[in-house]
Amino acid sequence: MMQTPTIPIDTAARARAVHVVPRCMRSRTPERRGLRIAAWLALLASVAAQARAADGPEGLLVRPQGGDWRETVALETEVDYRIRGLLAEVTVTQRFHNDSGEWLEGRYLLPLPGDAAVGALRLLVGDRIIEGEIREKAQAQAEYAAAAASGRSASLVEQNRPNLFNTAVANIGPGESVEIHIGYWQSVDFSDGAFSVALPLTLVPRYQSKGLDTLEALDVPAVVRNAEDSAIDLGMTYEPNVSISVDLDAGLPLASVTSPSHAIEVEPAGRGYRVRLANLVEASDRDFELRWTPRASAVPQQSLFVEEVEGEFYAQLMLVPPTVPVEPVPRELILVIDNSGSMYGEPMVQAIAALDRALSRLRPDDRFNVIRFDHTTEAVFEHAVPASADNVAHARRFVQRLKAEGGTELLPALELALADAATPGYLRQIVLMTDAGIDNEQQLLAYIESRRDEARLFAVGIGSAPNEHFLRRAVELGRGAQVMVRDTGEVRARTDALLARLDQPALRDLDIRWPGVAEMYPSRLPDLYVGEPLRVVAKLSSPAGRIEARGQGRHQGWRDAVDLLTATRADGRGIARLWARARITELDDQLRDGASEEDIRARILEVALRHGLVSRYTSLVAVDRTPVRPVDADLASAAFANAAPNGLAYANGSTGARLSLGLGLLLAVLALALMGRRREETPAPGRLRKDID
Q1: Do 531 and 468 reside in the same domain of the chain?
Q2: What is the pTM of this model?
Q3: Mean per-residue pLDDT for 248-253?
Q4: Which of 297, 476, 553, 570 has the fewest CB atoms within 10 Å, i.e. the most exposed one?
Q5: What average pLDDT does the structure give for the chain?
Q6: What is the spatial distance between Cα 671 and Cα 37, in angstroms, rounded to a whole number?
């Protein structure tokens, strides 16, 4: 292999390190700049208020009309998995108990896996069982509101985001307990020889990216605007708890069953295993992950499951291409690290360790750069440089000095990472290390898709509760891969696993040919990296015939085939729901890409209503037909808050969200006053500096 000559550090490149100033801070006049600074200060203070609201423990709260939040309602959550092969059927049971003397309405934000197909709702009130039904969103809201107003028990499940759901239950009587059962289906993951499922139990507060080019951003403070989205409220006195049990039948002999996130107990049960949390009730301040590894002799090369639903056939296929060692290609590695405020504490420790590990593995013939971002963006070098010992040492010192603070403006960092074309002869790879606590997901995904031919995007999810849904979609569009680092002890192993994939070229130009007519998702197959399987779901015209898969490696092609007659027959409607969820996801992508909303809405409604799934246009609603609340009794509202993610800490001595917001408004007033004084003292406005565009 030809060696790239090693050159000294470009000291000028250091001096030209790129700093990107948010657009909202730029202005051609002092007056307008002062106005924008006022808006910016108010936003920063409101974000800080949102963050500090996570300082204390959380619980289910009640706020009578005109009153303050106070503890009134307890919530218990039980999660039961039934895993068969590549399909997980999950039931989440939420138990509300009202220990007050008032009739209550409870609300809760429920994070779920990004591919979760939510399609079941059951409400238990005393000895009454009310089954949920799928409805168009507006109709479901109307039915729920009417039930709440008329004193009947009711529950509602709505999609907030593809991986975030709002649940509500109305008319919980004094001293009464109510149970909500929510059912969903998800695919089992397979990577690096191990199967896994993950359950988000909390979420990182999301930073809301705003241009702040107008005064509209001052109308509603971010802490108020995001109160429901972040599910972090004031006055909380205890954390929500969760218990988890798993009925695991992998369909093959296993070498181990482990969890990197929680202590578990595993015992044989029939053909499989029964898994429980070692602590009967566990605080839900981190995502739950379960892994099971097959024996070396039983690692599957192909798995195929087929089910029949109402005369239609659905298939779930997984193929594992063989690993063929090849000589690594020269690469241009752009490492992008998130040092925003949501990364404070353990997440920042993990990110720095992962990035330092990546830098230590650079080869002399690689080129690289490091970009860090919070609400500003900075690159170590102006352009990618050779991975000489001096350059790498300089970058490692830069990384070790990073501190977590500020907002989370990811888009400028991605724009900077993709600003230059790859050096001829090099494969450009971008590795993003973040918890992805961002609000503008659709904007970011659209940008990544528009630049998908420029580079490959990889992600290292950081912290106890990373936004896995966004990271998964980002790397799918960026034709890369991802790993999740939920524990400091896994930084080395998980980072090495990702870098090993970067060392090997992907299997490209994948194609699957089905017998007869098939509607397959994803319809555009991703590139595959070492240790990754090819996974699809499809709706078939016939359950017989031969499936053929092919792809192109760096030096040779790959082919595989499987006969539908050898497929394992699945019971229930799980695969059909996974197919429907995948189709809805693809339709959502088309909407983001500019398709007609009227057309997409009609197509999503057809799929969601047919398969009984919650979507952006459909919801589940369960309504008791018998009134339980006296007509003369008021209904108070309650909001349940998720636990703050484990390891997510903020500076000691914070004095509460309201005071922070007040300080922010005070800063805004001071900035406006200074602006007014500047206007009096400045005879004519002029441009004071050259802005970066």
Answers
A1: no
A2: 0.75
A3: 93
A4: 297
A5: 77
A6: 7
